[in-house]
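Researcher: Let's try something more involved. This one mixes different molecule types, so please make sure each is placed in the same coordinate frame as the others.
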Amino acid sequence: MKVGVIGGSGYIGGELIRILLGHPDVELTTVVSRQHAGKYVHKVHPNLRSYTTLKFSPLDVDYVAKTCEVVFTATPHGSSKDLVPELLKSNLKTIDMSADFRLKNPQDYPQWYGWEHSNPQLLSMSAYGLPELHREEIRKADLIAVPGCMATSTILALAPPVRDNMIEKERIVVDLKVGSSGSGSEPSIASHHPERFGGVRPYKTIGHRHIAEVEQELDQLTTQPVMISFSPHAVNSVRGILATIHVFLTQETSELDIWKSYRSFYKSEPFIRFVKDREGLYRLPDPKVVVGSNFCDIGFELDNHVNRLVIFSAIDNLVKGAAGQAVQCLNIMYGLDEKTGLKTPPLHPA
Amino acid sequence: MKVGVIGGSGYIGGELIRILLGHPDVELTTVVSRQHAGKYVHKVHPNLRSYTTLKFSPLDVDYVAKTCEVVFTATPHGSSKDLVPELLKSNLKTIDMSADFRLKNPQDYPQWYGWEHSNPQLLSMSAYGLPELHREEIRKADLIAVPGCMATSTILALAPPVRDNMIEKERIVVDLKVGSSGSGSEPSIASHHPERFGGVRPYKTIGHRHIAEVEQELDQLTTQPVMISFSPHAVNSVRGILATIHVFLTQETSELDIWKSYRSFYKSEPFIRFVKDREGLYRLPDPKVVVGSNFCDIGFELDNHVNRLVIFSAIDNLVKGAAGQAVQCLNIMYGLDEKTGLKTPPLHPA
Amino acid sequence: MKVGVIGGSGYIGGELIRILLGHPDVELTTVVSRQHAGKYVHKVHPNLRSYTTLKFSPLDVDYVAKTCEVVFTATPHGSSKDLVPELLKSNLKTIDMSADFRLKNPQDYPQWYGWEHSNPQLLSMSAYGLPELHREEIRKADLIAVPGCMATSTILALAPPVRDNMIEKERIVVDLKVGSSGSGSEPSIASHHPERFGGVRPYKTIGHRHIAEVEQELDQLTTQPVMISFSPHAVNSVRGILATIHVFLTQETSELDIWKSYRSFYKSEPFIRFVKDREGLYRLPDPKVVVGSNFCDIGFELDNHVNRLVIFSAIDNLVKGAAGQAVQCLNIMYGLDEKTGLKTPPLHPA
Amino acid sequence: MKVGVIGGSGYIGGELIRILLGHPDVELTTVVSRQHAGKYVHKVHPNLRSYTTLKFSPLDVDYVAKTCEVVFTATPHGSSKDLVPELLKSNLKTIDMSADFRLKNPQDYPQWYGWEHSNPQLLSMSAYGLPELHREEIRKADLIAVPGCMATSTILALAPPVRDNMIEKERIVVDLKVGSSGSGSEPSIASHHPERFGGVRPYKTIGHRHIAEVEQELDQLTTQPVMISFSPHAVNSVRGILATIHVFLTQETSELDIWKSYRSFYKSEPFIRFVKDREGLYRLPDPKVVVGSNFCDIGFELDNHVNRLVIFSAIDNLVKGAAGQAVQCLNIMYGLDEKTGLKTPPLHPA
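Model: All components are placed in one shared frame. Result:
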């Protein structure tokens, strides 16, 4: 199929291009970047040197519509909401990487993002692009809202015990450790190497926007409202998120009970790996060994001292947290094997 | 005063030597290392080249007793408990860096450390070397048990709200991020650079030994038992611990209430810095800006969404988490200004 | 074809397994590790979890011969020389990752490696596995000696100007910057995270063993002897080598002359990329953007101030410097497209 | 003495403040930053929290002259040349961190910096602030031009063998590895964490401006012109420079000859350490173990294979490469012990 990427110059855009160039059923025809129009793609994404002779195009919806049937929009939060309706009108299936179509309740946008949604009618027709929870909707949708990276790791870790009412729903502590690529390709003091290197820096400790989509999704699995305590930290790595989730059990629960909850929820999901060994350095999830892949590694420990369940989930924020998950959605929309184009194993060590 | 270090070849030993060499009231006469006896100290601690011509001595308690009046024992957990009584018998004041005299209840050793204490009578005479909580005991003691690094950051962050009964005492989540120097100078697969670099690895997620001393200390401040949920992570830095502590408030509490609790507890403590600004990259604690110093930086955020208080505390694990705190104790024992020898500011950036 | 790996538990072994599992013409039947026999491969190589259910086998040449037609030996320097003859006798084509068959002159082994070669007759029948220089020999050989990682980056950078007599042959300065994976999977003080992190450490500044193979290979391209000044440095990365090669021109030479030399030497080599742009952060080679791939990126600058040519070459030490180059040799031996199994692009950023 | 810093918000400015606050003979009265005037110094330099209550002042030469007798100008290259004459007119001794007064020949400015010098008459009265070469001039000067960081490490490593005519003077290869703090506190794509982390990136491979001062200084030591081949690389660290200098000997030379050259040149220099042991991880210089100190560690290896001398020199670019060296000059100007305020040992590990 003919595919385009709008917003191809950032890190998520680059990752989409990388994956799509290796996808056997995709012809990547168009990559839009206003800033870099006319420049070779590999000048901005140096890893792709010798992989493509594509150049960035300016934004021209008609041209995109002529050259593509489906398009990924890796455009900034707040600008997708105005661009996507145009694409849909041009009969382009759209997979949007921004937050603009993730929240179902239009009131959530002023609350969490600070602006009114200009096209609220599209919220109900978009599918939240988390295949493990919304596969059937994704299959039928013309508009996919790809989840946020931290939301992905959090929801996937929590969905089984929330659904199975195993945990206290107002004491859910999500402590995240995030690599610098999550803040994008634009230099800033927060990602300035001398400031970031070797530190562990809390940021957006309260009120992070991903809480909105995490609670929206988990609320659908249970009757009691889910309340998330969510605090990320910037660490000295480039790719990867580790979500450490501390929750408290509501009743006596064995390891086997927890296993069953996860196994029944995820059955044979192609990108969920359970990582819980008795020994070994990587006996629990570590983002280091998922980098470059679409896996979400999930593991847990049961702490009888305080009746606590500690759940770990590790993803590559640019893959399962963005571009890989988007391509997984594409595969579902087109009836392909979900792993198509997403089979490359991670590197170790790296 | 004449001072010795036993166990001078590891990272804590090296840090003691570095600080003691710059301490105006200390003459460092003896540094013991069985493994390196006869070798120049700076061959093992390359940063000290040109600072000292001392050589490592073999372990000989008589010699130590002749050349020192006070000695730091940076010997392994489990071996201090047999060495320290000999030192005390030789009239050496002893500041022990191991866990062997931290716990007051002899039964805690089999439970948390897996061995019976051979000298339980010493437990009641040792002072737990956390000046902010035990200054008067330290002043009078002949034996100091210097707290564990993660315990230090956790106790200092939690003491005020625990004392003031502001938080739920069985839902205290301590999520720690720890640099590689905390695992010591002995190479291991867990600290092998290719395995450690760029990752975030959970370890000892449940049952960490420092829980014992944290609960012991916090229990003294309140009537209800304190139950700690404690999980460290290995991150890609060398020095520094960030403890992120998620707790839930028991009643309506303002930022000002919390400030008051901390201010009243720590008053003019020389090594507690409150770090809570409205803006700036380092508006909350980050271990990156305490490295090399004896500070414990403490800050917090109040999360009304879930009635959560998030407390951050950052220390250099080898300084306030070990050698610096030990020297602070020494200063107290000898009636010196507590900051003596501990005034060097951290570096930024580094 | 049926393929085996002997010595599958180290970093080079793991990388061979990763690449071979994704190779469409390879069936990986056997992975030998004495230390880990019986254990699942993914317990040692955590990135391969869910990619294979293979277990490590003990070393049994008969079993290997029954299950494979070609075998990679990722065994230690000095032990391959005794194992490989056995494999050849069993009619196994062998691709050896060690240094034991790289040097053609048996006298070089006592000089550079400190031992006599037990099977010197094999040296003349082995092909030096650098396709860009020895493609025809590799095609016909039953035994391939895969070059050293630093030797690969150095030879590929120098071959054109050496062949074309453009540079002084006794003033060739090769200054290398090397990631920690190059020192292998065994913990050591040199690769201990607290010691390696953030430093730049010279090691084997003189007399590095790779000099022997570099001079052997370059001497074949010219009449004057080539003398290499070769000094590596350990830097704070895991994968990747940057060789910075400073040479002095023997006559007036333009950028175009140099381009021509490289272009004529490498024509359409599939894994040589020329990286020399006028602008951009990655206008010259950086190992960061070849990690995970089999590329050798080559670029240069001409310094008229001192009549100097500075050549840069960047590889992933575990891929083009080891496992990838070995698979490239396999492809040549079996008449396959050389890129088979080696097409995955690098990641950026990572 | 009363001291001021103009340009106090960058990394060099911050380092000056850190050192001056700990200097027993200095009263730091004024810190100027146009951008941050009115803000507390510790809001910009978070390591200095609790060390000072100083605020940044706007630039007002009269005020500086009233509150200081000596001032450090950490102002951008090209702007110092116009500010410094004003300061001198106000009878302020001036220690300038920029390049504007380093070069003695006014013609060098258009050639290397691209602008005409507006106050060329000051070039002859300024002292090049490298105490090991210009102590007497520094003692008497009112204007010090503090050397560039890479120039410092290069000149100190090369001065002895150049003076003693031991090496070929047109084949001097200086290959530098530099931490990210050397590029300053302003975010840029080159220092963006995702781009800098884990890479080794050549930059300014030819024509680096520090060549001008290196050749100027070395030419004074010998009759033949010295020609420098100078190429830096950006590595994954924050502080520190390692200069690896490859030179070729002009005659038979023993290790002892080289030792003698260095010993006679540097005698009892307080900040030169010779690092050349037979064994140990840090047997040669590594910037990792000078960070935070004013040392220049120098070591070498003799490579008989190619008649090469490899010299290593390691400094902290912000200390001996900038602020520390500037304070060393201050100490000389005021007849103080040169180590005053500069005694803090480096950390290890860190």
